[in-house]
What does this fold into?
Amino acid sequence: MSVRHGLLALLAEQPRYGYQLRTEFESRTGATWPLNVGQVYTTLARLERDGLVTPQGDDGEGHAYYAITDAGRAEVARWFAEPVARSVPPPRDELAIKLALAITAPGVDVLRITQAQRTHTLRALQDYTRLKARATDRDIAWTLVLDSLIFQAEAEIRWLDHCESRLARAEAAAHKPATSRLNPYAFTPHSRGAGS
Amino acid sequence: MTRPDAQPILRMVNIHRTHGRGEAAVHALRGVSLHVRPGELVAVMGPSGSGKSTLLTIAGGLDTATSGETFVEGVPLGSLAGRDLARVRRRSVGYVFQDLNLIPALTAAENVALPRELDGASARQARREAIDALAELGLGDLADRFPDDMSGGQQQRAAIARALIGPRRLVLADEPTGALDSETGEAVLRLLRTRCDAGAAGVLVTHEARHAAWADRVVFLRDGLIVDDTGGQAGAESLLEGAR
Amino acid sequence: MSGWRPALRIAWREARRHRGRTLLIAALVALPVLVGAFIDVAVRTSELPAEERVRRLMGSTADAYVEIAACPSISEITYLDGRPFPNASCDQDRTDKVDLAALLPPGSTWIETNGGDDFGRLTHGERGLRTSLQQLDTSSPLADGLLRLREGRFPRALGEVALTTEVASALDVVPGDVVTSRQSGQVTVVGVIVEPSCLSCESAWGMPGWVRSPAAASQDAEAGAASVGKASKEQQLYGSQGSFLVDLPDAVDPFRLQHDLLAHGVLLAPRAQMLDPPPPPMDSGSAVDPMGIAIAALVIGFGLIEVCLLAGTAFAVGARRQVRDLGLVAAAGGDARHVRRIVLAQGVVTGLIGSLVALPLVIVVVFLSRPWLERVNGSLMGPLDVRPLELVPMIGVGVLAGLAAAMVPAFTAGRLPVLDALNRRFKSTSLAARWPRIGLILFVAGSGLAGVGSWLWLRAEQGYERTVDGLSVQMTDQMVQVGSYSPGGPSTTRYVALLLTAFALAALGLALLAPTLVATVARAARRLPLSARLGLRDAGRHRHRTGPAVAAIMGAVAGSVALAFWAVADHDFKDRTYQWSLPEGWAQVQVQDSAENPVPVAPGDISGLARELLPVRDVLRASSAAVPLPRSTTGNEPSYSMAWAQPAAGGCPPPDRSGSNGTVGVADSATLALVFGTVPAAVEHGLAEGKAVATDCTLIGHGKIAFLHEGMLQDVVSKTDMPKPITMPAVLAERPRYFGIPSILLPPASLDRFGLIAVPGQPIIVTTRTPTKAEERAFADSLADRYPDATAWVQVERGYQSDDALVLAVLTGACAFVTLVGTAIAVALSAAEARSDHATLLAVGADPRRRRALAMAQAGTVSLLGVGLGVVLGGIVGAAMLGADINRPLLLPWTTLSQIVIGIPLLGVVIAGLCTRSRLPMVRRME
It folds into this structure.
């Protein structure tokens, strides 16, 4: 959905060729979500079908030149004005499903799962942060996108923290032996990177 | 960036720290080892009570380990008496706390110059070093301002300048962004990052993952033990491909 | 040196940030400086420079001071305190008069400066005053500078007189008025003056010759002479003790003249020598009084300790406020030295500020209070004398006092572990836990030592008494001693030192215990209402602050209580051993002429006057037995000497060692009436048999009395020739002993036998009740009117009078002051520390009056504890001192104790309540 409206927003600025739309989109969003040309033309065809864009001819090599219609402008305005809906039901969150099943499954070490996930997500967070460190002031849009990834990763880690403490409390209340005891388990250095 | 062959500035080997005795004993650290090399910024994360702050205070000699050894620039801290530990803090290790880092009765430059003055440097020379340090951090025009007239972020950055003045190359920061808003906190961490890139080493205790992410390595502490470590750096771009 | 710069910088900036607090502590610390500097400047300013001193003695223009010595020749002149004295010994005083004109070189002029020692009553209208009448040629330039003119001018002729300010205001005269006296007739007041060295003197000054005997005065009046008072030829012969100011001709060498005049017994002191006198040959040396120095050192030391305690409280609180900063310094690489220096530097800075403010203040105060100081001193002061060399070291004293006060907080701060400092956690160290135990041991040891020392001293005194008793028994047998023998006592220095050490230990012990006691009392807070509970708990939690305050209060109170113990016991002793001159309420009349010889006054002369003004039963006088003495040439000495009684062998032992032996009287009717009232039959019988009467059983033994008179001692050279006293048979009729009434009465007929005569004494007024002070004063005034040329006074025997009440009031006031200061500091500091707690209280909805109640509770806690400990310590000190004193009993000074224990804490609580604002300013919760 967002690809559709993204292209429409770009056409609202000025009419463009299909391939121009692709490069423009990628540059604006920091190539985080690269598109292929086929995807672009398919989306354009649907937009044309819905009466939101009109072709304006071509460059002589078969590349169509598109322009936005009034209906299209209205649609763009509506897209900007309205908040992005949170889909119901929410998209499947693999991590949440995994944990939910792990908690009730016998013999599964939930803490190990959370810790491993945390480490993994934090590594990703480190990488995002390194990218952000290199960004300059002129890339505000790009850094915001990056920040979005960063915050989401952080949110995941915080949720993992929360799960751990919630589970610990539940165990303490139920006095039942922990499926994973909070005993120290050895730290195993990872294969890559400098260990301790 | 870390130079893998350099000698670690901080080496903590199998550190145990227990408070109290017998039944009421509290084991803050149960055998933690940590090496930090020049140019490396290590973040330590963990829930409260995991021993993060204890680790930091032992690293700088403010607290003594029950067992295990700590080496700062090769010198074992356990063998040092109070006065010598103070000298280590003057010359090798700097601290940054969560807030109230600066002495309110001294200006920013005087605060930054404090370790040098305590070490015997002349007032003029210490002041010159302090002003240079502040200028490097972009705080040059704050030199003669009092902490009361500085924002929280400026104070924290001045504290970092103080932590790394003179021959000091190891900065120990305990939740330095805790009292700051997100933007200012990020500025402080950028600063730490820059200093470490320039050759300093740092240990950063934090509970915010976003801030821990600025480190080269993130170490997880729980119940007095290191339970995980993010290790070295992966390639930055590979993750973006997985996000599609 | 490295740590001091940042420390001083921090201290200076902190001082500027909290100006009020800094000034308060600086004032405290600078108190010693204030007192010392004031004394220095005042004393130095009172000391006269040489020129002024000489000016007061010999005016501004005279060349030399001349005095006629009593001896006919002088060996040398010595100077003492800037005054010349003739050094001479002679067997016979001079009898001739000196012709000054012959002795001094031709062309010399002089004036006499002690012309006459006359007294007279000056009247002006209704008012009259007895003043000294002085003669001085004030028209001569030689007199310039001796007197200081306040109004009008100096007298220039006979008939003119100048009065001192005291006389002028008493008589309510101004220049131009006329006063009258018997010696001078009517004279005009032309000026009002002061004597520079005696501002309160009452005197009248006129030209020589203005004071004459009444006969000569009327002669002059007849002759109509208006002589200008210059010395006439016959007046140029002067007797001994005459003093003069001389103007010498220019060519004369005054030192040569001085030497020449020695052989004539005339002292001449040139101005140059007076300005720069040679030092006395022997170091006559002020006797260094070790006891006095010890007491002064004790008082000064005590004052300094109190200042240190009170200021130390403030520094302790300051160190606590700063504890995070101290931790930061330690984390930045400072060790214990640097941390200590930060606190010590505050002491230095505060002391410096205090001293620098105090010194100029003192100079200004001395300058402004000069009139008052002059009046207190009785003499004019010189110009303001500020000596920087003496004052600058006082700045050092102030700095040292600040350092000393900050010492303990500094060391405590240095020992605090860095982590605790950073987190503001004040865990008590193991050493701090040991202090109370040490304090308890010290206190017990000190008290025990005090008890032991007191007992040892008592034994020493008792042993000494026994020795003295033995000696005085011997002496009684030999009857060598005349008068009373007062024993000195055993060497007390070591006992005093022992007791002082014991007191110091006990005081130190209690001071160390103070914080723990505060905490213990705080635990009892559970049962009390909310405010009291909060106040006590707060005091307990912040022992670092309340402890020293309590110790300071304890010190002041202990001192006052100990002194009160002593004062009450001393009063009791003096009261018990008071020697009555007469029965209570009776009055002794004394009239003396200017040579201090008694003027004979018969009871009938004054009885009418007495009966008007006093509750008189009778006016009597006793006759004393005396031996006539050969008259001396000078006529100043009495013509007879009294006989006195001796303790008789076989008489009853004396009740105490008072030693006065009683006078010998003559049993005429007046004396008998005085001694007995109604004469008992036994006495009449005895007298009829020719026996003497004794009223004191120690004076009669084996039926005999014994007495001596001076005539018997004339030929005595050594103790072995002591004459045997005269004895005669006597009867005993016991009466209470009064030393103004004879204890032995001889029958009049027996006087011739012993070569004695009866000499009437001065009148004694027998009263029906004790006259009031007003009646006494009225009678004294009328008596003075009746005898205007003599000094007449009356003394009513009222028993032991003391100004104890004043002394005790001053003591109580002083310790109240210290208590208030200590309490105020403790409460104010706690209010400052607890601001965030108060904000919470307010936020929770507590009544604003809570804050006031809280302050009152804190004040009450601190002052009650301090007073309580002080009473305990003071009691120990007092008991130890009095335990060693065989004369003075151990009594409880109830009045002072109750004033202190109840009044002072009450005052502290009330003032705390009044001074606390109940509205709270809004405060950030995060400091």
Observations:
- Chain C has 28 helices and 28 strands.
- The two ends of chain C are 32 Å apart (CA to CA).
- Residues 42 and 149 of chain C are 25 Å apart (CA to CA).
- Chain C touches chain B through 25 residues (CB under 8 Å).
